[in-house]
Amino acid sequence: MEWTDEQLRIIGHSHGHGRIQAGPGTGKSTTVIALANSLSQDRPASAVRLATFTRAATAELAAKALLDGGTPIQVTTVHSLALQLIVRNSQWSRLPLPIRIPDAWETDELLHDDLRTRLASRWHGLRKTTVGRLEREMAAQWESLDDSRLVADIDPQLRDAYVAAWQQQRAVFGYSLFAEMPWYALELIDDHPDADLFGCEFLIVDEYQDLNRCEIRLVEALAGAGLSIVSVGDEDQSIYSWRMAAPEGIRQFPDSFPGSQDYPLSISQRCARRILEAAQRVINVAPGRNPNLPRPTPADHNPEGEFAYLRFRSGHAEREGVAKLLQHHHDVDGVPWGEMAILVRSDYQARWSKPIREKLASHDIPFADVEAALAPLHTNAARELLAVARLVLQETDDLAWWTILHVRRGVSAASIRAVADFAALHGRRFAAQLMRLEQDTIPGMPAQSRTRATARVNEVLSLLVELQSQSLPETGDWVDWLRDIARSLEITIADDLDQLLNRVAAVATVDQGVREILAQLEPVARDVALEQPGVSIMTVARSKGLTFSIAITMGVEGELFPSPLSDVPEEDRRLLYVAITRARRASYLTMARFRTDGTAYTGSGDSVNSRSRCNFLSQASIEPRDGHDYLDALG
Fold first, then answer.
1. Omega before 473 cis (within 30°)?
2. Does the bond joining 98 to the residue before it have cis omega, within 30 degrees of 0?
3. What 3-state class would DSSP assign to 312?
4. Distance CA 71, CA 228 (A)
5. What does the alpha-carbon distance between residue 550 and residue 253 come to, in Å, rounded to a whole number?
6. 64 Cβ partners below 8 Å, 6+ apart?
7. Dihedrals phi, psi of 630, to nearest 5 degrees
8. Model pTM greater than 0.85?
9. How far is the C-alpha of 440 from the C-alpha of 74, rounded, in Å?
């Protein structure tokens, strides 16, 4: 390909630290891979590593690295890199072994719900969302990059009570949080200067603006150990304040890494001219925005494209309009369904995705709902199946035993807590305590619950004897293995789960074992959903790092952008900037004058029927156009 002067400067970086400030669609991934290949010349294979924040970005970089055909580059997420460091130096690890990371269902249904219940005895009305917030603050080591107030600062007693409850829960159930890996890797490097760092010399960190203070400190510690760091990112796309990230992270890079070289990437190869112009108008008027950022400009070959802010009479009319826009671009312009996306600000209780799915189905428009991708894995039958599969691999898996008791009626959450408390009192893990149910009298556990729990544990133990006598499946046979377990449990695998398992199996690599596949089911399920041949439906945050020919962002209204519940309202401007720039050819923002369905409750949680235009767009002098007239003009 023909490189721009900006790209050639980056690819020529040969030593020391550097910062690449890359606007949307500026060829960042291709340039970074070329830089990594250039740095790898005449160096060992392990000398250069690429780390990014999201799995989607990691997959994109890994795929491009393979296509490029240069030296094989190690591509991973920052959290996976931290975990690899811990495993590589396991003699100093303080994590429970074997390392067991809970998935999204286990985190929400078991861990967070249990912690909320325990803390709610003192903090009445405490919500699971607050428990999740405390977990993220703890993973960031109680530090924020900006002036956002932490729950821990507002209520230090709640913070201390949470940490105490979490430590007991973790000791009993033997899990490790993926979010805490950077923290433990940082401590390991700080405590042990002779730690094995894979022989890495250069670390390129993509999406640097998404890192929180703890993760940045890990990168700084790696630099202190002799690695050269190249950060890549765009502070205008910093949208993760909920995990304590902020634009200040990449903005302060030169101060944290003295002598670093700055490289702009400003020529957008992706966005049509009208899209890029609208996006710049929105972001340029942001209060406190860094005035020294490179201004993205369209490449010579970029088309004019289309951008429009459309207002419809109602939420129903908005959904009908969205369907007609998609139909037009498919039938008239020949855009494949899989190159189009519908984005929403949030999707609590599927208030946005469910009605738009129904509307698309009524128009025979195929779709892939990324937000609903995990639903087949979250039924009680699926959870019981996966729990038993994990127990076949590791009979002392505490979270799997918790799941076994949780999904069947007869053993209450209070009884499970009583078992966990008794285990903690006697220094035991949960699984070990379950094996002693018949001999121990557990305070707070009714005799009937104890009888049912004992019977269930014995039933599963008998089943495990049978299943463990069979050899573990090869990589290509693990779905049949799960089907065999389901038959033993007398569980019917639902069609949607069966389809999902087959899709995951199709992308599993031959070097992955069954244990690794089970651990990756949820994230791979989301990846697979993105590859389905239909219109993608997802939140704006999940779309970050992705590109579509056509992107339609629904509900761009003053009640949602910014969210009245947001601690950082200006972050919603950056979120809108991300939404606008996901499209190559056409980017649409839609709103409704009135909402009377579930979407009227999104934002503050109260029903707001009459809707206002988005103030971020008003500040950029972008007025809503009549959506019905716009569609009529399309023909």
1. no
2. yes
3. strand
4. 19
5. 34
6. 29, 30, 33
7. -60, -45
8. yes
9. 50
